[in-house]
Write a structure and sequence with these properties.
Radius of gyration: 14 Å
Strand order of the largest sheet: 1-2
Number of helices: 5
Mean pLDDT: 92
Number of domains: 1
Number of strands: 4
Helix content: 40-55%
Structural class: mainly alpha
Low-confidence stretches: none
Distance between the termini: 24 Å
């Protein structure tokens, strides 16, 4: 989807790169941060369209971009678990995830969660 000359994914990446947090979960607020809203919308409406770009973003030097990409891939089931690069499983870069409480997770932990979710989705006949 294009908004003027920028796709929704390009806008999201720009916002994720500038953020101090990885907004992977809703926060306690009437209005959710744009970083969360864009990630949610990409996961639910555009993940297939941006499949290759999302996989490419797993190589980003920005941990927040990698975290959001893993989250979208894991939620949408657009790839199989073996598409997650093995080096991410041991990536110790940390991101802070706000929600009801602030949590810190390594990229490796998020990659493991993503792979586990993809395995689960692959076994769910409603997701095929």
């Amino acid at each position: 989807m294009r908004c003027d000359t920028e796709t929704i994914l390009e806008r999201a990446v720009r916002i994720w790169e500038a953020s101090d947090f990885a907004y992977l979960d809703p926060v306690l607020s009437d209005q959710q941060p744009e970083a969360f809203e864009l990630g949610y919308r990409i996961a639910t409406d555009y993940a297939t369209e941006f499949r290759d770009e999302l996989i490419s973003l797993l190589d980003s030097s920005n941990a927040n971009v990698v975290a959001h990409s893993l989250d979208i891939i894991g939620r949408s089931g657009i790839v199989t678990h073996d598409a997650i690069p093995t080096q991410l499983m041991t990536d110790s870069r940390a991101v802070t995830i706000p929600g009801c409480i602030f949590r810190e997770h390594s990229i490796g932990e998020l990659a493991g969660l993503c792979a586990a979710n993809l395995k689960s989705l692959a076994g769910d006949p409603d997701r095929r």
